[in-house]
Amino acid sequence: MRLAPETQDWSIRRKAEPASSAALAPADLVDYGLRREEIRQLALLSPERIDRRNRMARLNGLDPARLVEDRTLDIATALCCADCAAEGQCRMAVEDGAPAAGAEFCGNAATFGMLAAE
Question: Which superkingdom heads the taxonomic lineage of this protein's source (predicted)?
Answer without folding.
Answer: Bacteria
